Amino acid sequence: MSTTDKYYMMRSLEKALYVVETMATRSKWELKDLSAACSIPKGTLQRILRTLEDLGYVRQVERGGAYALSLKFYKLGKQIASQSSIVPMVQPIMLKLRDKVNETVNLSTLSGVDMVVIHQIASHHALQMDSIVGTSFPASLSASGIVFLAFLPEEDLRAFIKDLRRSNSDINSEKIIRLYNDIEDAREKGIGLDFEELFKGIRCIAAPVFDDAGNIVSTISCSVPTVRLDRALSQKLLQEIPAAAEEASKLLEAPSHSFKFDMEEITRRLIAP
Protein backbone atom coordinates (compact mmCIF):
# COMPACT_ATOMS: atom_id res chain seq x y z
CA MET A 1 0.00 0.00 0.00
CA SER A 2 1.40 3.42 -0.90
CA THR A 3 1.76 6.23 1.62
CA THR A 4 -1.02 8.16 -0.12
CA ASP A 5 -3.46 5.29 0.47
CA LYS A 6 -2.88 5.18 4.23
CA TYR A 7 -5.61 7.69 5.06
CA TYR A 8 -8.18 4.98 4.30
CA MET A 9 -6.98 2.92 7.27
CA MET A 10 -8.64 3.05 10.70
CA ARG A 11 -5.72 3.19 13.11
CA SER A 12 -7.66 1.68 16.02
CA LEU A 13 -8.71 -1.29 13.87
CA GLU A 14 -5.18 -1.65 12.51
CA LYS A 15 -3.82 -1.80 16.06
CA ALA A 16 -6.44 -4.28 17.21
CA LEU A 17 -5.73 -6.64 14.31
CA TYR A 18 -2.00 -6.34 14.93
CA VAL A 19 -2.59 -7.31 18.56
CA VAL A 20 -4.61 -10.34 17.43
CA GLU A 21 -1.92 -11.42 14.97
CA THR A 22 0.76 -11.05 17.66
CA MET A 23 -1.27 -12.96 20.24
CA ALA A 24 -1.68 -15.85 17.79
CA THR A 25 2.06 -16.58 18.05
CA ARG A 26 1.74 -17.73 21.70
CA SER A 27 -0.83 -19.53 23.82
CA LYS A 28 -1.01 -16.66 26.36
CA TRP A 29 0.45 -13.22 26.99
CA GLU A 30 1.18 -11.12 30.05
CA LEU A 31 0.09 -7.52 29.50
CA LYS A 32 3.61 -6.06 29.78
CA ASP A 33 5.06 -8.60 27.33
CA LEU A 34 2.29 -8.02 24.80
CA SER A 35 2.68 -4.25 25.17
CA ALA A 36 6.39 -4.55 24.42
CA ALA A 37 5.87 -6.94 21.51
CA CYS A 38 3.25 -4.68 19.88
CA SER A 39 4.90 -1.38 20.86
CA ILE A 40 1.52 -0.22 22.18
CA PRO A 41 1.16 1.59 25.53
CA LYS A 42 -0.43 -0.52 28.26
CA GLY A 43 -3.46 1.77 28.62
CA THR A 44 -4.28 1.61 24.91
CA LEU A 45 -3.61 -2.13 24.84
CA GLN A 46 -5.94 -2.75 27.79
CA ARG A 47 -8.78 -0.93 26.00
CA ILE A 48 -8.22 -3.07 22.90
CA LEU A 49 -8.11 -6.28 24.96
CA ARG A 50 -11.25 -5.40 26.95
CA THR A 51 -13.14 -4.69 23.73
CA LEU A 52 -12.01 -8.01 22.24
CA GLU A 53 -12.88 -9.75 25.50
CA ASP A 54 -16.40 -8.26 25.53
CA LEU A 55 -16.88 -9.50 21.96
CA GLY A 56 -15.70 -12.98 22.89
CA TYR A 57 -12.42 -12.99 20.93
CA VAL A 58 -10.06 -12.76 23.91
CA ARG A 59 -10.17 -14.30 27.37
CA GLN A 60 -8.15 -13.90 30.54
CA VAL A 61 -6.58 -17.16 31.62
CA GLU A 62 -7.38 -16.17 35.20
CA ARG A 63 -8.74 -13.02 36.79
CA GLY A 64 -6.11 -10.30 36.46
CA GLY A 65 -3.81 -12.76 34.70
CA ALA A 66 -2.50 -13.41 31.20
CA TYR A 67 -4.56 -12.94 28.06
CA ALA A 68 -5.24 -15.51 25.33
CA LEU A 69 -7.22 -15.67 22.11
CA SER A 70 -10.50 -17.55 22.42
CA LEU A 71 -11.63 -20.36 20.15
CA LYS A 72 -13.98 -17.92 18.42
CA PHE A 73 -11.27 -17.22 15.84
CA TYR A 74 -10.86 -20.94 15.21
CA LYS A 75 -14.61 -21.34 14.79
CA LEU A 76 -14.77 -18.37 12.41
CA GLY A 77 -11.96 -19.86 10.37
CA LYS A 78 -13.74 -23.20 10.15
CA GLN A 79 -16.99 -21.47 9.24
CA ILE A 80 -15.35 -19.49 6.44
CA ALA A 81 -13.57 -22.58 5.15
CA SER A 82 -16.72 -24.67 5.26
CA GLN A 83 -18.85 -22.04 3.53
CA SER A 84 -16.35 -21.59 0.72
CA SER A 85 -16.28 -25.33 0.01
CA ILE A 86 -19.73 -26.52 1.05
CA VAL A 87 -21.79 -24.73 -1.63
CA PRO A 88 -20.40 -26.51 -4.72
CA MET A 89 -20.48 -29.81 -2.83
CA VAL A 90 -24.07 -29.49 -1.64
CA GLN A 91 -25.55 -27.74 -4.70
CA PRO A 92 -26.38 -31.01 -6.58
CA ILE A 93 -28.20 -32.30 -3.48
CA MET A 94 -30.16 -29.06 -3.21
CA LEU A 95 -31.04 -29.20 -6.90
CA LYS A 96 -32.27 -32.78 -6.53
CA LEU A 97 -34.37 -31.77 -3.50
CA ARG A 98 -35.87 -28.82 -5.39
CA ASP A 99 -36.82 -31.12 -8.27
CA LYS A 100 -38.48 -33.59 -5.91
CA VAL A 101 -40.59 -31.08 -3.95
CA ASN A 102 -40.67 -28.10 -6.37
CA GLU A 103 -40.11 -25.65 -3.53
CA THR A 104 -37.30 -23.15 -2.99
CA VAL A 105 -34.35 -24.75 -1.17
CA ASN A 106 -32.07 -22.69 1.08
CA LEU A 107 -28.64 -23.39 2.49
CA SER A 108 -28.10 -21.21 5.57
CA THR A 109 -25.65 -20.76 8.42
CA LEU A 110 -25.46 -18.86 11.70
CA SER A 111 -23.87 -15.41 11.89
CA GLY A 112 -24.22 -13.65 15.23
CA VAL A 113 -27.89 -13.86 16.22
CA ASP A 114 -29.06 -14.27 12.61
CA MET A 115 -29.15 -16.99 9.99
CA VAL A 116 -27.66 -16.05 6.61
CA VAL A 117 -28.64 -17.60 3.28
CA ILE A 118 -25.41 -18.74 1.59
CA HIS A 119 -27.02 -20.52 -1.37
CA GLN A 120 -30.48 -20.97 -2.83
CA ILE A 121 -32.22 -22.86 -5.60
CA ALA A 122 -35.62 -21.41 -6.48
CA SER A 123 -38.80 -23.36 -7.17
CA HIS A 124 -40.62 -23.21 -10.50
CA HIS A 125 -43.75 -21.73 -8.89
CA ALA A 126 -44.79 -18.16 -9.65
CA LEU A 127 -45.60 -17.79 -5.94
CA GLN A 128 -42.42 -18.60 -4.09
CA MET A 129 -40.44 -17.63 -1.02
CA ASP A 130 -37.08 -16.59 -2.38
CA SER A 131 -34.30 -14.56 -0.79
CA ILE A 132 -31.17 -12.96 -2.16
CA VAL A 133 -28.05 -14.87 -1.15
CA GLY A 134 -26.65 -13.01 1.86
CA THR A 135 -30.11 -12.23 3.25
CA SER A 136 -30.28 -12.63 7.03
CA PHE A 137 -33.18 -13.38 9.36
CA PRO A 138 -33.51 -13.92 13.13
CA ALA A 139 -32.24 -17.34 14.19
CA SER A 140 -34.57 -17.45 17.21
CA LEU A 141 -37.70 -17.20 15.02
CA SER A 142 -36.76 -19.46 12.13
CA ALA A 143 -36.76 -23.19 11.49
CA SER A 144 -33.17 -23.01 10.24
CA GLY A 145 -32.09 -21.05 13.29
CA ILE A 146 -33.79 -23.35 15.79
CA VAL A 147 -32.23 -26.48 14.31
CA PHE A 148 -28.80 -24.82 14.07
CA LEU A 149 -28.96 -23.75 17.72
CA ALA A 150 -30.05 -27.25 18.71
CA PHE A 151 -26.67 -28.67 17.74
CA LEU A 152 -24.37 -25.92 18.96
CA PRO A 153 -22.03 -26.75 21.85
CA GLU A 154 -23.58 -25.63 25.14
CA GLU A 155 -21.02 -22.86 25.60
CA ASP A 156 -21.84 -21.42 22.17
CA LEU A 157 -25.56 -21.65 22.84
CA ARG A 158 -25.18 -19.71 26.09
CA ALA A 159 -23.14 -17.07 24.25
CA PHE A 160 -25.89 -16.85 21.61
CA ILE A 161 -28.58 -16.32 24.28
CA LYS A 162 -26.45 -13.62 25.90
CA ASP A 163 -25.98 -11.84 22.55
CA LEU A 164 -29.68 -12.22 21.76
CA ARG A 165 -30.71 -10.58 25.04
CA ARG A 166 -28.20 -7.79 24.49
CA SER A 167 -29.32 -7.11 20.91
CA ASN A 168 -33.09 -7.31 21.47
CA SER A 169 -34.74 -5.72 24.51
CA ASP A 170 -38.01 -7.54 23.71
CA ILE A 171 -36.46 -10.91 24.56
CA ASN A 172 -37.73 -11.76 28.04
CA SER A 173 -37.44 -14.88 30.21
CA GLU A 174 -40.68 -16.34 28.85
CA LYS A 175 -39.40 -16.11 25.27
CA ILE A 176 -36.06 -17.65 26.27
CA ILE A 177 -37.85 -20.60 27.90
CA ARG A 178 -39.95 -21.06 24.75
CA LEU A 179 -36.80 -20.92 22.62
CA TYR A 180 -35.09 -23.57 24.76
CA ASN A 181 -38.17 -25.80 24.43
CA ASP A 182 -38.06 -25.42 20.63
CA ILE A 183 -34.33 -26.18 20.64
CA GLU A 184 -34.80 -29.33 22.72
CA ASP A 185 -37.57 -30.45 20.38
CA ALA A 186 -35.36 -29.90 17.31
CA ARG A 187 -32.46 -31.74 18.97
CA GLU A 188 -34.65 -34.81 19.44
CA LYS A 189 -36.39 -34.72 16.06
CA GLY A 190 -33.51 -33.54 13.88
CA ILE A 191 -35.71 -30.93 12.21
CA GLY A 192 -36.60 -27.33 12.91
CA LEU A 193 -40.03 -25.88 12.23
CA ASP A 194 -41.59 -22.46 12.10
CA PHE A 195 -45.25 -21.71 11.72
CA GLU A 196 -45.39 -18.20 10.26
CA GLU A 197 -43.35 -16.72 13.12
CA LEU A 198 -40.99 -15.19 10.57
CA PHE A 199 -43.25 -14.47 7.58
CA LYS A 200 -47.04 -14.46 7.51
CA GLY A 201 -48.36 -17.17 5.20
CA ILE A 202 -45.03 -19.05 5.11
CA ARG A 203 -44.16 -22.21 7.04
CA CYS A 204 -40.72 -23.76 7.04
CA ILE A 205 -38.95 -27.07 7.66
CA ALA A 206 -35.17 -27.25 8.14
CA ALA A 207 -32.64 -29.99 8.84
CA PRO A 208 -28.98 -29.85 9.98
CA VAL A 209 -25.83 -30.47 7.95
CA PHE A 210 -22.80 -31.67 9.94
CA ASP A 211 -19.08 -31.78 9.13
CA ASP A 212 -16.54 -34.55 9.68
CA ALA A 213 -16.10 -33.55 13.33
CA GLY A 214 -19.84 -33.77 13.97
CA ASN A 215 -20.24 -29.99 14.17
CA ILE A 216 -23.22 -28.32 12.57
CA VAL A 217 -22.11 -26.14 9.64
CA SER A 218 -25.35 -25.26 7.86
CA THR A 219 -29.00 -26.09 7.39
CA ILE A 220 -31.05 -27.15 4.39
CA SER A 221 -34.60 -25.82 4.42
CA CYS A 222 -37.73 -25.16 2.40
CA SER A 223 -40.07 -22.24 3.09
CA VAL A 224 -43.50 -22.93 1.62
CA PRO A 225 -46.60 -20.75 1.21
CA THR A 226 -49.42 -22.16 3.35
CA VAL A 227 -51.77 -22.17 0.33
CA ARG A 228 -49.70 -25.04 -1.14
CA LEU A 229 -48.95 -26.86 2.09
CA ASP A 230 -51.35 -29.79 1.96
CA ARG A 231 -50.94 -33.23 3.51
CA ALA A 232 -49.11 -34.80 0.56
CA LEU A 233 -46.57 -31.97 0.20
CA SER A 234 -46.02 -31.77 3.98
CA GLN A 235 -45.16 -35.45 4.17
CA LYS A 236 -42.91 -35.25 1.13
CA LEU A 237 -41.04 -32.32 2.67
CA LEU A 238 -40.71 -34.14 6.00
CA GLN A 239 -39.16 -37.10 4.17
CA GLU A 240 -36.99 -35.34 1.62
CA ILE A 241 -35.50 -32.39 3.58
CA PRO A 242 -33.91 -34.55 6.35
CA ALA A 243 -32.79 -37.04 3.68
CA ALA A 244 -31.06 -34.26 1.71
CA ALA A 245 -29.38 -32.90 4.86
CA GLU A 246 -28.22 -36.40 5.77
CA GLU A 247 -26.83 -36.91 2.26
CA ALA A 248 -24.96 -33.60 2.51
CA SER A 249 -23.57 -34.59 5.92
CA LYS A 250 -22.34 -37.91 4.53
CA LEU A 251 -20.66 -36.02 1.70
CA LEU A 252 -18.79 -34.05 4.38
CA GLU A 253 -17.92 -37.36 6.09
CA ALA A 254 -19.95 -36.54 9.20
CA PRO A 255 -20.61 -39.20 11.83
CA SER A 256 -24.12 -40.63 11.65
CA HIS A 257 -26.96 -39.13 13.71
CA SER A 258 -30.21 -40.81 14.64
CA PHE A 259 -33.45 -38.83 14.84
CA LYS A 260 -37.11 -39.69 14.91
CA PHE A 261 -40.39 -37.80 14.84
CA ASP A 262 -44.08 -38.48 14.49
CA MET A 263 -44.82 -37.59 10.87
CA GLU A 264 -48.59 -37.62 11.36
CA GLU A 265 -48.41 -35.24 14.30
CA ILE A 266 -46.13 -32.77 12.52
CA THR A 267 -48.16 -33.01 9.31
CA ARG A 268 -51.28 -32.02 11.25
CA ARG A 269 -49.45 -29.01 12.65
CA LEU A 270 -48.11 -27.95 9.26
CA ILE A 271 -51.49 -28.02 7.51
CA ALA A 272 -53.55 -26.65 10.41
CA PRO A 273 -55.26 -23.32 9.65
Q: Report the sheet-strand fraction.
A: 15-25%
Strand order within the widest beta sheet: 5-4-3-8-7-6
- How does the overall form come out from the CA principal axes? elongated
Low-confidence stretches: 1-5
How widely separated are the two ends? 61 Å
Name the assembly state: single chain
Report the radius of gyration as a whole number of Å: 22 Å
Overall structural class, as computed from helix and strand content, comes to alpha+beta
Order of helices and strands: HHHEEHEEEHHHEEEHH
From the structure above, extract its key features.
disordered N terminus; two-stranded antiparallel ribbon; alpha+beta; six-stranded antiparallel β-sheet; 273 residues; 17% strand; 49% helix
What does this entry look like structurally?
- 49% of the residues lie in helices and 17% in strands.
- It has helices at residues 11-23, 31-38, 42-54, 72-101, 143-150, 154-167, 173-189, 231-251, 263-271, and strands at residues 58-60, 67-69, 105-111, 114-121, 136-138, 192-195, 202-210, 216-225.
- The protein has a six-stranded antiparallel β-sheet with strand order 5-4-3-8-7-6. Strands 1-2 form a two-stranded antiparallel sheet.
- Helix 1 packs across helix 3 and helix 8 packs across helix 9 (263-271).
- The protein is elongated, with a radius of gyration of 22 Å.
